[in-house]
Amino acid sequence: MNADDKVGEGGRTSDAAHTGNNLGPDHVSPGNSGRSPGLDADDQNPWAKHALEGHAADKQPSDAPRRGFIKPAFKALGQFVRFMVTLPLVLIRGRRGNLDEVTVYSAHPSFFLWPLIVMGFVCSFIVERKPELTVFFGWLYVWVLLYFMVTLLYDFSARKLALWVLIFALIWLASKYVEDMKNVLVLSAAFQYLARLQPRFDPGTATVLSWLLVLPWCGSLVHMALNGRKKFTPNEIGEFHFAEGSELTDRTGLRFRTKYRDVLETLLTFGGGDLLAVDNHQNVIKRWDNIIGLYFFWKDLDRILHQRAVMETGDDQKLGGH
């Protein structure tokens, strides 16, 4: 290559640079893009570039729907687990949405199984580590089972329970008096017979029984969430029944009373009781049994019920003024 050819190439380069400078700031020439065309493999091989773009285009739509399906699925699973974990606490405390409404739940009879379930797991855990306490926890489990059966079969109000405690105390004192004065065994013979039985707690049997009872107890939670929900507002009372419909009760002219008809059920429902709606003649119009935690959030219900009474009193005064 001679000098003239070099000068010619340099002149063409200078002309290209001069032409690019005269295009203005809004125009960017290919030579000023900062890339060397000789080092860019994609520019040299456009077929490879199109193949890579096509492969990326084919891969992106297949991954996007998969990610869009998995993320909502895990989110829904987390919400369900959170709902099942917090549901017992919600049932006990009641749900407070707005300031002018309170949602309560009625306990299903299978909700009373929770002492047997808890005692089965706890006693099994302790007895497996300390076998010498087998007889003690055997008696404890028997008394818990007896408590559960009496709760289902009988209703003991506070006065009735106190009366029966007094009766059994008098019978025990009378038997002790006869045994000391006449040397005749009365109740002591029955107590000695029961003591010789020595019921022993079996961890395996109790654990299996507790796991089996967990199923109906969880069913009671689902039943309360779907069919045992009651919402109280200043104007009405809403009841919701899954796959059956809803019921709204107008609160006009109704008064409300609490009744704790069974002390044993009150303990099992964490202060629960019955809520009665009565008219001006003390006739029971509506009754809701075993409201969980009624004793603890009665203040919130009373505030809403009193709010309705104040509104009715104000309306009556306005009508009287006219």
- Spans of at least 5 consecutive residues whose pLDDT stays below 50 are 1-44, 309-319
Number of strands: 7
The whole-angstrom Rg is 40 Å
Largest beta sheet: strand ordering? 1-2-3-4
Rough shape? Answer: flat
Order of helices and strands: HHHEHHHHHEEEEHEEH
Question: What helical percentage do the residues reach?
Answer: 55-70%
* Structure classification: alpha+beta
Number of helical segments with 4 or more residues = 10
Mean pLDDT: 75
End-to-end C-alpha gap = 117 Å
Q: Major beta sheet, specifics? A: 4 strands, antiparallel
Beta-strand residue fraction: 5-15%
Q: Brief overview, please?
A:
This protein is α+β, with helices and mostly antiparallel strands.
Kindly describe this structure:
The chain is of the alpha+beta class and 322 residues long. Among the domains are: 110-223, no CATH class; 235-317, no CATH class. It is built from ten helices and seven strands. The protein has helices at 3-21, 41-44, 46-93, 114-129, 134-153, 158-182, 187-197, 203-227, 263-268, 298-321, and strands at residues 102-105, 229-232, 236-241, 245-250, 255-259, 273-278, 284-291. Strands 1-2-3-4 form a four-stranded antiparallel sheet. Strands 5-6-7 form a three-stranded antiparallel sheet, with no helix packed on it. The longest helix has 48 residues, at 46-93. The protein is flat. The relative contact order is 0.10.
Write the layout of secondary structure elements.
Blueprint: H1 3-21, H2 41-44, H3 46-93, E1 102-105, H4 114-129, H5 134-153, H6 158-182, H7 187-197, H8 203-227, E2 229-232, E3 236-241, E4 245-250, E5 255-259, H9 263-268, E6 273-278, E7 284-291, H10 298-321
Antiparallel strand pairs: 1-2, 2-3, 3-4, 5-6, 6-7
